[in-house]
Amino acid sequence: MRLYNSQSRQIEEFEPYNKECVTMYTCGPTVYHFAHIGNLRSYIMEDVLQKALEFVGYNVKRAMNITDVGHLSSDGDTGEDKMLLGAQREHKTVLEIAKYYTDAFRKDCQMLKLRWPSIVVPATSCIDQYIEIISTLLEKGYAYKSGGNIYFDTSKLKDYYRFGNQTADDMVVGARDDVDEDTGKKNKNDFVLWFTKSKFENHALKWDSPWGVGYPGWHIECSGISYKYLGEYLDIHCGGVDNKFPHHTNEIAQTESFVGHPWCKYWFHVEHLNTKSGKMSKSKGDFLTLSKLKELGYCPMVYKFFCLQSHYRKQLVFSFDTLEQTKIAYDKLLKRLANIKEDNSTIDKNEYDRLKNQFAQALENDLNTSLAITAIFDTLKSDTTNATKIALIKDFDSVLSLGLVDALNNENKEENTIDDTLVQYIEQKIEERKLAKQKKDYALADSIRAELQSKGIELVDTKEGTTYKIK
Ligand code: AMP
Ligand code: ZN
């Protein structure tokens, strides 16, 4: 397996600390709102990464946190606690919204056929672990108390910046941060490990600590949970690119200072899903969820297919036009799969190995999922036996989890699948309308559109041609 490592900024051969068991940590959601489809892009790619590692023979132990405390509305230590804001917005308690949105996230994962990691831990359940780490950091001189809070002292590290994506402003080491009067930081990028006295006096969740009643900062939770459940050496740490700085930079600073040696080998960062107007973000409020897509007639597998067709290190721009094209392609794929019936044929070993290798090589090449999808289509095109095709599709779906096996068995005809004659009918009408427009017979073109409309089929004209939505 060759993977891009954000720390070295190059593609590296994957060599885990212990070949018997790969450890993988995923930054989980902040459960103050629904996950948006951008967040889900990250979780889709992380799930494929885990399954791809298993496909090539590794055992993977994976842990994920659920952020239910400490994440402020800036990713630094300013702003308000996102959980508190969510609770106020919905007139509920912090724990109520944490439960509600954790359940909603789990449902999203199920709909996307993402495996729930074997270790999923709410941040509020590991307070003792954070206290242990912070106490050691204070003893070792990496942390200090100021203004009632405990801070990590970034000036103690020679190589605090690890990902090279900071702005010039981020890089001002040693400068006092006078922007927020409440902070007692010595250096601009020092960050809170434990809040005891802060502007959030009405903070809902508080715990006793050697430094007074308070609550943990955001970054310490991932260091604590990862250390507690995966040990002092970590193979892969995942998250969206926005987590590189300050979150992951700070995780490295505190964990390595605590354990006293290098910690995580590979950093896997998923690029953002953007809308035409910029990054999709929960705090902006106007984001798309999986349920919203379902309401609009797009099943979760269509969104997943859309994500897997592009590389995880490239920004992906979401548009309904592209999603519509993806839906048509996905429906066609399912139909072709449904036509592969089990018969008495046997597996053609050469062809099976060839296509399986093609698929594996795509994944081993920095998780190239779009090339892996090409292996599906090459399998369908191959004139090999049905038994070979079925065996391959099962293998591919064990990694991509795109509902391909369901389609083979033809059990789960998702609501977005439509029958062949209807597709042919619509495609013929689209063609007739195109010809009418070429002949400038706009009355005929409009009547074709209206005819389809009356049957619940809406035509959508895009740069690439005309597609349709079925209501
Ligand atoms: P949050 O719930 O805000 O803590 O984010 C959960 C995960 O989604 C993190 O790994 C983020 O880096 C990631 N993320 C946030 N926004 C996007 C986006 N627009 N596209 C892809 N991943 C994102
Ligand atoms: Zn994290």
Key traits:
Rossmann fold, Four Helix Bundle (Hemerythrin (Met), subunit A), 471 residues, 3 domains, globular, 43% helix, binds zinc ion
Written description of the protein model:
The protein has 471 residues and is of the alpha/beta class. The protein folds into three domains: 2-270, Rossmann fold; 282-408, Four Helix Bundle (Hemerythrin (Met), subunit A) (Up-down Bundle); 420-470, no CATH class. Helices cover 43% and strands 15% of the residues. It contains 15 helices and 16 strands. It has helices at residues 37-55, 82-90, 94-111, 127-139, 218-230, 244-259, 290-295, 300-308, 320-338, 349-364, 369-381, 386-400, 404-409, 420-438, 442-454; strands spanning 2-5, 10-13, 22-26, 60-66, 119-122, 143-146, 149-152, 191-195, 215-216, 234-240, 264-270, 273-275, 278-279, 316-317, 457-462, 465-470. A five-stranded parallel sheet has the order 5-4-3-10-11, with helices on both faces. Strands 6-7-8-9 form a four-stranded antiparallel sheet. Strand 12 and strand 13 form a beta hairpin. Helix 1 packs across helix 12 and helix 10 (349-364) runs parallel beside helix 12 (386-400). It starts with a strand and ends with a strand. The model is unreliable at 175-180 and 411-417 (pLDDT under 50). The structure holds adenosine monophosphate and zinc ion. Zinc ion is lined by residues 27, 222, 247.
Structural class: alpha/beta
CATH architectural designation of the largest domain = 3-Layer(aba) Sandwich
CATH-defined fold name of the largest domain: Rossmann fold
| Overall body shape | globular
Any low-confidence stretches, pLDDT <50, length ≥5? 175-180, 411-417
Strand content: 15-25%
